[in-house]
Design a protein that fits this description.
single chain; MetI-like fold; Sulph_transpt2; transmembrane helix; 269 residues; transmembrane; mainly alpha; MetI-like; 79% helix
């Protein structure tokens, strides 16, 4: 029996697959065509936008590093061990992924101002450490971390699930305890996954908006990041500047993704 041609199969698959890719490419092309280099340079030259860029890079980096520090051990425990309440922990980890962004920001605001006796978490932190959270830059990191860490946990769980755990079992039969097997066997193998999880956490932090707006506010030169810069520029009718900042965010995201994936490829090799 003569095999049928694969051409119809590839036409259908390519047609369906290209829908999303073409849509995203058209969105970026529309932004580029809407603005000009002069408008882009004018927007970037604004002091408040430059301050927003610096604060964005700082907070995204802090939240991404914090996320991978928390996500790696949490994902390892959820993947390798069975313990009471594991299903509940697994469910809680996924809550930020499905929770509406504004609800997450409101929940953070309530948490830090919920009275416990004569104290609130906000007042206790301010009195003991001198750090104010709400409507200051730590609130930005907290809002970014809540979502970015959930994505990092999902990524690291996939990493540990794909790893062959026999090497860890062998290490324990040779005298290693669970901690030594984790640090000397599992963690080095998880390097590329950690890079990927950090990439996802950083990129997700970059695009966070709703929780930041509610919990940190959008005060210029204080709690303004690039995502809120787009909102503020739109609110005063500066559509060209808003598009310019949007393109800057796209450029930063692409540079970070390409760079970290290149690093991850090198680690894998």
């Amino acid at each position: 029996m003569k095999p049928r041609s694969d051409v119809p199969f590839f036409i259908v698959m390519a047609g369906l697959s290209s829908c999303f890719v073409v849509l995203i490419a058209m969105l970026i092309a529309a932004d580029i065509s809407f603005t000009s280099f002069h408008e882009f340079r004018h927007a970037i030259s604004k002091p408040e936008i430059r301050a927003s860029i610096r604060l964005t890079l700082l907070t995204c980096t802090v939240s991404a590093i914090s996320s991978i520090w928390v996500a790696t051990p949490l994902a390892y425990l959820l993947t390798r061990f069975r313990f009471p309440g594991r299903a509940i922990v697994d469910l809680i980890v996924d809550v930020p992924l499905v929770l509406p962004p504004l609800v997450l920001g409101l929940s953070l605001l309530i948490l830090f101002h919920l009275p416990v006796g004569d104290w609130t978490l906000e007042s206790w932190l301010r009195d003991t450490t001198g750090i104010a959270v709400t409507h200051h830059w730590p609130a930005i990191v907290m809002a970014q971390f809540c979502v970015a860490c959930a994505f990092a946990v999902r990524m690291m769980r996939g990493t540990f699930q794909q790893m062959d755990r026999r090497a860890e079992d062998v290490a324990r039969t040779l005298g290693c305890n669970h901690g030594q097997a984790f640090f000397h066997v599992a963690l080095p193998q998880a390097g590329p996954g950690m890079v990927a999880a950090t990439t996802i956490a950083w990129a997700r932090s970059l695009g966070e908006f709703g929780p930041i707006l509610v919990f940190a506010g959008a005060t210029r030169m204080k709690t303004e990041v690039l995502s809120t810069s787009v909102y503020l520029e739109l609110s005063i009718g500066e559509l060209g500047s808003a598009v310019a900042v949007s393109l800057l965010m796209v450029g930063i995201a692409i540079v970070v993704l390409v760079t970290l994936r290149w690093i991850g490829t090198g680690i894998a090799r």
